[in-house]
Amino acid sequence: MRAHSALPARPAGQSAVSESRQLANYVLARMKGLFPDRLTKKLPSMELVQLFVATLADEMERRGITRDMVEAGLRRIASECEWPPIDVPVFLRFCMPVRDYEAAFREAQRLASMRHQKMGGQPEDWSHPAVYWAASRFGWFEMRNSSWQAASARWVAVLDEVLTWRQWPKIDRVAITVEGGLQTKAVQRRELANMRQILAGAVAGGAAAPGFERDRVVE
């Protein structure tokens, strides 16, 4: 094992903040290995290096970033980046289980409508529990009926907050629409058509579009 790839063990009684500082130094060492010349161009002075490490350590501690998450982020960076991402929010995005916030919004909107129509949106359908809980905190009515352009700023803030949780509760299952005790093909087709109509209205952004709800309802 190369020297720069080992993270020293935390001495007994050492604080978690100090562990985050060690992890930030580990990130710096790994990025030196990945981008030896380009990292120097991004961080040309010792003051900037120290600022990067200190800021990264604080944010990793605040957001609960683990060694495994850092390793996953570094693997993505190695395969996707030509320059080292030394902007701390950008680096942390590589480490998080949800990276594409717009794709997560589209997923949440689609599955929220499926849950509302009793056509799916079960726990196994969500890419990560954080997407479900962000949708729950965002509001199911707003989730179903908002456009990305109108909702993006608030969605990013809500998802960022949910991603700081150390663990996420289980997603509740939803009772699927049944007819005569069975989920028939006719019921599936009818409800799927309704769901598509709602999503089409949301994309169009018209408050009077077919399928838009007039009253706020809680799932």
Structure description:
The structure is a single chain. Helix content is 61%, strand content 0%. By secondary structure, it is mainly alpha-helical. The radius of gyration is 22 Å and the shape is elongated. It starts with 15 loop residues before the first helix and ends in a 15-residue tail after the last helix.
* Overall pLDDT confidence: 81
Query: Helicity range of the residues?
Result: 55-70%
- The secondary structure category is mainly alpha
Radius of gyration: 22 Å
- What is the rounded distance between the termini? 52 Å
Please provide the ordered H/E string of secondary-structure elements.
HHHHHHHHHH
| Number of separate strands | 0
- Unreliable residue runs: 1-14, 205-218
Concise overview:
This protein has helices at residues 16-34, 36-42, 46-63, 67-80, 88-95, 101-116, 129-138, 140-145, 148-163, 185-204. With 219 residues, it is an all-alpha fold. Helix 6 (101-116) crosses helix 7.
Core attributes:
219 residues; mainly alpha; 61% helix; 0% strand; elongated; disordered C terminus
What is the fold's blueprint, element by element?
Blueprint: H1 16-34, H2 36-42, H3 46-63, H4 67-80, H5 88-95, H6 101-116, H7 129-138, H8 140-145, H9 148-163, H10 185-204
Helix pairs in contact: 1-2, 1-3, 1-4, 4-5, 6-7, 6-9, 6-10, 7-9
